Automatic annotation (TrEMBL):
The lineage of its organism: Bacteria, Bacillati, Actinomycetota, Actinomycetes, Micrococcales. This is Enamine deaminase RidA.
Amino acid sequence: MPVQLLSPAGLMQPVPYHHVAVGTGARQVHVAGQVARDAAGRPVADDLAGQVAAVLRSTALALDAAGARFTDVVRLTFYVTRWRPEEIADLMAGVESVADELGLPTPMPPASLLGVDQLYEPDVRVELETVAVLD
């Protein structure tokens, strides 16, 4: 297995992601920021939970095209506009709504959430960049 996920003692627990990912494969997959749009570019959700679910589904499609799955992911970076800490329940609801469908590991791979002023369109609340490692 090219990816080992770790949550060492002494780091904040519990969190919905692992703190460390060790990738030992030679082939890397970098997925560009995915947003809540369908193949024609139309918005597919307007709430935070719905957009999170949509970006994870799009990311799964991109990973699959490269022969990867979420179990190969070593890094997730979420960008969220107008972020407020009290929205964490909505963000996690979006993750949980697709976790089984997409085979998301629990806890997730190492993840960061960055609050930003805006993304490329006013209705886009979430963008997700992903890195995976394959043999």
